[in-house]
Write a structure and sequence with these properties.
Length: about 525
């Protein structure tokens, strides 16, 4: 497009016009699609993204910290190979720290990779699929002008980079379906491995990749190689982490340390409502923990343990709850290292206890834990995103040392502003899921899949499989907060919109074939064009 067309339409018109982004999928190469058709668009988006970041950092000159931040920093500072959280982000922090101590550089890098991956995803979507004007507007706004991306990138946390890696991985799956080659095959495996080192949510990603490879047009041995690659990469990491945990706390664990805590926490949600024969518990340690649990539910008033108000991790967080009471009864916490070791040493006990209760009382577990987590899934709490730096004006000394701050004081435009700006996002996640379900039911009920291309159907199968596995893992084995559901939000919105566009296009085609829409004159053509602008 020539510059005079940009001047005539204005930046906003240019971004969302039918001129630079075709409603029909592109037939040329992706490189030509980028350079010839979208070069100016990309430059504009990049400029606006940079401007947003600069404005944001004027408002929030310091990163946002919460408990996980200090755990990641501590593991990076001590060069640990196992920690409460996956070690990948701590290794990244250590590498980044060797290049620069600037917190602004860290936040910018996290924001940059998140927005770059979103741009790659967006351009891939409009390259392969029919997209209407409204879809392009909504995706542009959500991907590139979204305050949630800025706030997530401002955390010292794995969230922004994990989301970016997940977006890149899912985009590679779309390429595997449409135009597979060796690069996409290898990159999807590497991305799964990296994502897994940042967050264990990625453990089901190989299943989604396997589905994409099965649906792709490739030789059987190529598909098998693509399926095997992430497993081949992950297994050594699991062995490495287990060995590192053995050296740190004296037992092999995977997931390291927090896995046992999670199982114990999940099971304790139902402990009050089941009669457990303590003699049948798997060990004396489990029986001791069960005594603490019974005493807790007998002595702590209901008003002091409002379990639904938590993000399904009450028994991990609260010091008076049975898990931490058991740990403190056995181990003296004198410094951060001793705390990590203590967490790791009690984790196997919590795992044995939790899994025993879940296996023996599945219906109680479903009612008292899974039901709470299902509600959290569809309305994921903002959690730490509600307030900047947990509402405090200071940070811990470790963070000040890591980023070369002269003192512990930090400032921002407002601690509560982000809670106001992000207030609607839990509801948006619910609406996105409902919109996807509505369009999927409409798509199936009208049997429109008969008119869809194989690649379009394959993408929808991958999308549906991902949403089902994400739901199952999130509800059954994880805490649920909005920052854990941002990636599902993005692809849910994108594929809901693609389904809606497909249904609209088929409806228009059917109407034309039945003679209900007839374009007879240049004036009619011009009017239709204006409606599509």
């Amino acid at each position: 497009m020539k510059d005079r067309n940009i001047d005539r339409l204005g930046v906003d018109k240019y971004l969302f016009s039918n001129v630079h982004l075709k409603q029909s999928p592109s037939v040329g190469t992706f490189r030509a699609f980028i350079i010839s058709e979208n070069k100016v668009y990309i430059l504009i988006i990049a400029s606006l993204i940079l401007a947003q970041f600069i404005i944001f950092k004027l408002m929030y000159p310091f990163p946002d910290f919460f408990s996980d931040s200090y755990s990641y920093l501590f593991a990076a500072y001590r060069h640990l190979n196992a920690n409460i959280w996956p070690i990948g982000y701590s290794k990244f922090l250590a590498l980044f720290h060797s290049l620069t101590h600037s917190s602004i550089a860290l936040n910018f890098f996290q924001y940059f990779v998140l927005e770059l991956s979103s741009l790659y995803f967006y351009l891939t979507i409009i390259y392969f699929y029919h997209t209407g004007r409204n879809t392009r507007i909504v995706l542009n706004l959500f991907l590139f002008f979204n305050p949630l991306a800025l706030y997530l990138s401002n955390y010292v946390s794995s969230d922004a980079i994990f989301i970016a890696i997940s977006i890149l991985w899912f985009t590679q799956l779309l390429w595997i379906i449409h135009r597979p080659n060796a690069f996409h095959l290898i990159s999807q495996g590497i991305l799964i491995f990296i994502a897994f080192t940042f967050r264990y949510n990625a453990f089901y990603y190989p299943i989604i990749s396997a589905i994409a490879l099965i649906l792709s047009r490739q030789r059987v041995w190529v598909k098998l190689a693509g399926m095997a690659l992430p497993i081949i990469l992950i297994i050594p990491f699991v062995m490495f982490s287990s060995q590192a945990t053995l050296k740190l706390v004296g037992s092999r664990q995977f997931p390291p340390i927090l896995g046992g805590w999670q199982w114990g926490n999940n099971a304790l949600y139902m402990r009050e409502f089941v009669n457990v024969d303590s003699n049948k518990l798997p060990s004396n340690e489990c029986r001791e923990l069960d005594r603490l649990a019974r005493n807790f539910f007998r002595t702590v008033p209901q008003s002091d343990r409002d379990l639904p108000a938590y993000v399904a991790n009450f028994f991990i967080r609260q010091p008076e709850a049975p898990l931490k009471r058991y740990m403190l009864n056995h181990y003296k916490i004198e410094g951060d290292m001793s705390e990590v070791i203590a967490w790791g040493k009690v984790s196997p006990v919590f795992k044995d206890y939790g899994l025993y209760l879940i296996r023996n009382y599945p219906f109680a577990f479903a009612r008292h834990y899974l039901l709470i987590n299902t509600k959290n899934y569809f309305l994921p709490p903002l959690e730490k995103l509600e307030i900047y730096n947990l509402g405090m004006d200071e940070l811990l000394p470790l963070a000040a040392y890591w980023f070369d701050y002269p003192n512990l004081e930090i400032r921002s435009i407002s601690k509560g502003l982000q809670g106001v700006l992000l207030f609607l996002y839990p509801t948006l996640f619910l609406l996105f899921n409902a919109y996807y379900a509505y369009n999927l039911v409409l798509f199936a009920a009208r049997r429109k899949f008969r008119q869809a291309s194989k690649s379009f159907m394959s993408a929808q199968v991958i999308m549906f499989s991902f949403m089902m596995l994400n739901f199952s893992f999130s509800v059954f084995a994880n805490i649920i907060v909005i920052r854990y559901q941002v990636f599902p939000m993005i692809i849910c919105l994108a594929f809901s919109s693609l389904l809606a566009d497909f249904l609209e296009k088929i409806h228009e085609t059917d109407a034309k074939s039945e003679g209900r829409i007839t374009i007879q004159t240049p004036i009619d053509n011009a009017a239709l064009h204006l409606r599509n602008m």
